[in-house]
Design a protein that fits this description.
This protein folds into four domains: about 290 residues, Rossmann fold (3-Layer(aba) Sandwich), CATH 3.40.50.300; about 70 residues, Elongation Factor G (Translational Gtpase), domain 3 (Alpha-Beta Plaits), CATH 3.30.70.870; about 110 residues, Ribosomal Protein S5, domain 2, CATH 3.30.230; about 90 residues, Alpha-Beta Plaits (2-Layer Sandwich), CATH 3.30.70. The strands form seven sheets. It has a seven-stranded mixed sheet, with helices on both faces. Strands 18, 19, 20, 21 and 22 form a five-stranded antiparallel sheet that branches. Strands 23, 28, 29, 30 and 31 form a five-stranded antiparallel sheet that branches. The protein is elongated and about 100 Å long. It has about 725 residues and is of the alpha+beta class. Helix 8 packs across helix 9. Helix 6 links the parallel strand 7 and strand 8. The chain contains 20 helices and 31 strands. It binds guanosine-5'-triphosphate. The site of guanosine-5'-triphosphate has 24 residues, from helix 3.
Length: about 725
């Protein structure tokens, strides 16, 4: 099975795109053509799926495995739970790498970006393809850091299943909740893997409880650990009543034995396993009618006689219906429990045909991903994930379809179905993949190229990066003409800066990082304005009267209303221009030039001289709305973050003291093993550079997670300080 790709690569041959016929980019059916895969030089891969030696076992099975044998899965978790380490083990055991990569040594396959290797974190999702016991698995390793949440979401929406990895000593953590909610939104069946069972403080029971309580999920305990923390040495398979022990002399975990539990040798463990199995059977029977009939009929007297296969089939159905989640455990770092996890992926997560997708798309080149390396292929069947190149106008969040007419037909159907929502018909969801919800950036800073001549290069780099990562926003400051970079966090902006340098060869300069504030008004105010300008021999004359008032919506989009006196015919021709004017005025509030939220704008009167252009109407409306906003009492809103700090007991006091100085509001302090978990809110402006401060306060022993909660009104004193600082008074 092992082959050296370097040899294989010398024989490669690419297929001219003219030969490629009927290609598809996602969930497609197409004709098969013979070709040799194109492989960039392999680093430490021993073989690509289905290849033996320099030859190809069966091209058809390499590229087009039967759809029932495909699993498209993602790995998701809180930062540092061990996704990348688990993925490395998966690649090694499935035979596609020859050595075990290590996050701490910076030589993993899926964290291939330089920044990922240097920092030991996942930033970009990486796709890899491998085979496991006759199944083709397309796996995506997603980032755990909150700044890259969008990256997780854009992966989840094209996956059929996911493995949620937990640190068994921490259970459900802040970002686990976020990714779990995202998976709920995209209706992704899941398996939980309680990793780090070898770590001090690891607790199977605690982690399972946290899944039940915090994720409100029903855990199905398919395994029990044998030992915990330092004593962790193996697992019990509850379904088959077998114990799995890893050979302590084996340093790669390949060598383990699976033995039935026997009364003579393991009486206690067998008793515990039978109890767990009976509980599992009852739990599954409660969720699956077909299984309930079987259990209550044939096997009601003795669950022990129930064949493992029947139970496995029922667990598969329950997982697919997302009424419960299978829970497994292990230690990726100590090479224990990963092979059974792979078995569970093939056994319990769905194949693409068990989920509903149905689109075709013609494209020019198709590539099978293997982290940062690709094989060019001519076609692939429904249910696979592939890469394509050259779609210039396509960005994250788009659904590709076979033709304009089918896109229009799908959109029309989706619209009709949306209207019928009360009938709970989910046809529209089947047709179009749900769009990615792009979170609003909370930080921004200026970015400058090394010289004016390099401005177009910077614009090009930012355009490309934005298409990849829609959570990155770029805009021009209308006053200074500077380019502004808006991102999800300090790390996000830092990584973008670094990528521009490494990938586009541009050394750029960032201005100080600033918080993205918003503004609102506290009372109503009216304003009138007239614009009278003659351009050439055309006179443009508009008079407008508007009222701005506060409303409770938490929305950046102003509500627009029209007084009855505004003539319908006038609205017909100028409504677009009026609304443009209102929106552009609300983008720059009077206090800080930040977007204005929670306002309604009423147009009380509008008179337009014949021949006046719509641009002039927009300009006049915009100016008038800004006047009204300026007259009202104004309020700055600041981003408030949910903060979760996990800290050793001894360091709790300094952490709390520091948070008090940062205007933190502590909601709860939980106990998690030997640690304390501080949960609360803190204004974003106060938490810049927190990772360094926390490291110093706790000798590097604490971790924290941050997530935008809401925008809250600043108190008058803090607001004054901010406004004075901005206007250079302090
Ligand atoms: N004790 C122990 N440590 C582990 C285990 N798995 C991973 N680690 C360590 O935990 C740290 C994080 O591991 P990663 O695999 O990078 O975690 P990740 O979830 O991919 O991290 P991000 O992608 O950055 O969110 C590294 O120092 C690993 O060596 C495990 O099973 N036991």
């Amino acid at each position: 099975m092992l082959t050296n790709l370097r040899i294989f690569a010398m024989n490669h041959q690419t297929i001219p795109s003219a030969h490629i016929n009927n290609l598809c980019c996602y969930k497609i059916r197409a004709s098969f053509k013979r070709l040799k895969p194109y492989v960039l030089l392999g680093r430490n891969y021993s073989s690509l799926p289905g290849l033996i030696g320099n030859d190809i076992k069966s091209l058809h099975s390499v590229i087009n495995p039967p759809i029932a044998k495909i699993r498209n899965i993602g790995i998701m978790a809180h930062i540092d739970a061990g996704k990348t380490t688990t993925t490395e083990r998966i690649l090694y055991y499935s035979g596609y790498t020859r050595s075990l990569g290590d996050v701490d040594d910076g030589d993993t396959v899926t964290d291939f970006m330089a920044q990922e290797r240097e920092r030991g974190i996942t930033i970009q999702s990486a796709a890899v393809t491998f085979d496991w016991k006759g199944y083709r698995v397309n796996l995506i390793d997603t980032p755990g850091h909150v700044d890259f949440t969008l990256e997780v979401e854009r992966c989840l929406r094209v996956l059929d299943g996911a493995v949620a990895v937990f640190d068994a000593s921490a259970g459900v953590e802040a970002q686990t909740l976020t990714v779990w909610r995202q998976a709920d939104k995209h209706k992704i069946p899941r398996i939980c893997f309680l990793n780090k069972m070898d770590k001090t403080g690891a607790s199977f029971k605690y982690a399972v409880e946290s899944i039940r309580e915090k994720l409100k999920a029903k855990p199905l305990l398919l395994q029990l650990p044998i030992g915990e923390a330092k004593t962790f040495k193996g697992l019990v398979d509850v379904v088959t009543k077998e114990k799995l022990l890893w050979n302590s002399n084996s340093n790669d975990g390949k060598d383990f034995e699976r033995k039935p539990l026997l009364e003579v040798s393991d009486p206690e463990l067998l008793k515990e396993t039978i109890e767990a199995r009976n509980a599992l059977i009852e739990q599954v029977a409660d969720l699956d009618d077909e299984f309930a009939d079987l259990v209550l009929g044939e096997f009601s007297e003795n669950f022990d006689l129930l064949p493992a296969e029947k139970l496995q089939n029922a667990i598969h159905r329950v997982t697919l219906a997302q009424t419960a989640v299978p829970v497994l455990c292990g230690s990726a770092l100590k090479n224990k429990g990963v092979q059974p996890l792979l078995d569970a992926v093939t056994m319990y997560l769905p194949s693409p045909e068990e989920r509903n997708y149905e689109f075709l798309e013609r494209i020019s080149r198709l590539l099978l991903p293997f982290a940062d390396q690709h094989i060019e292929i001519s076609s692939l069947t429904a249910g696979n994930i592939a890469l394509t190149v050259g779609l210039k106008h396509t960005a994250t969040g788009d659904t590709l379809v076979s033709s304009k007419s089918s896109a229009l037909a799908a959109a029309r159907r989706a619209e009709r179905e949306e209207e019928k929502q009360h009938r709970k018909n989910n046809e529209a969801e089947r047709l179009l993949l749900a769009g990615v919800e792009i979170p609003e950036p909370v930080f921004f800073c200026t970015i400058e190229p090394p010289s004016v001549a390099k401005q177009p290069d910077l614009e090009h780099a930012l355009k490309c990066l934005q298409r990849e990562d829609p959570s990155l926003k770029v805009r021009l400051d209308p006053d200074s003409g500077q380019t502004i970079l808006c991102g999800m966090g300090e790390l996000h902006i830092e990584i973008i800066h670094d990528r521009i340098k490494r990938e586009y060869g541009l050394e750029t300069y960032l201005g100080p990082l600033q918080v993205a504030y918003r503004e609102t008004i506290l009372n109503s105010a009216c304003a009138t304005d007239t614009l009278d300008r003659t351009l050439g021999d055309q006179r443009h004359l508009v008079t407008v009267e508007v009222e701005a008032r506060p409303i409770e919506t938490s929305s950046l989009m102003p509500v627009i209303e029209y007084a009855e006196s505004i003539h319908e015919d006038l609205l017909k021709v100028s409504q677009g221009a009026i609304e443009n004017g209102i929106h552009s005025a609300c983008l720059q509030g009077p206090l800080l030039g930040s977007p204005v939220q929670d306002v309604a704008i009423t147009l009380h009167s509008l008179t337009v001289h014949p021949g006046t252009s719509t641009t002039m109407i927009s300009a006049c409306v915009s100016r008038c709305v800004q006047k009204a906003l300026k007259k009202a009492d104004k309020q700055v809103l600041e981003p408030l973050m949910n903060l979760e700090v996990t800290v050793a007991r001894d360091y709790l006091s300094p952490v709390l003291g520091d948070l008090a100085q940062r205007r933190g509001n502590i909601q709860e302090i939980q106990t998690r093993q030997d640690n304390k978990v501080v949960i609360g809110f803190v204004p974003l402006a106060e938490i810049m550079g927190y990772s360094t401060a926390l490291r110093t306060l706790t000798s590097g022993s604490a971790t924290f997670a941050l997530e935008l909660s809401t925008y809250q009104a600043m108190n008058p004193q803090d607001q004054n300080t901010l406004l004075n600082r901005r206007s250079g008074l302090t």
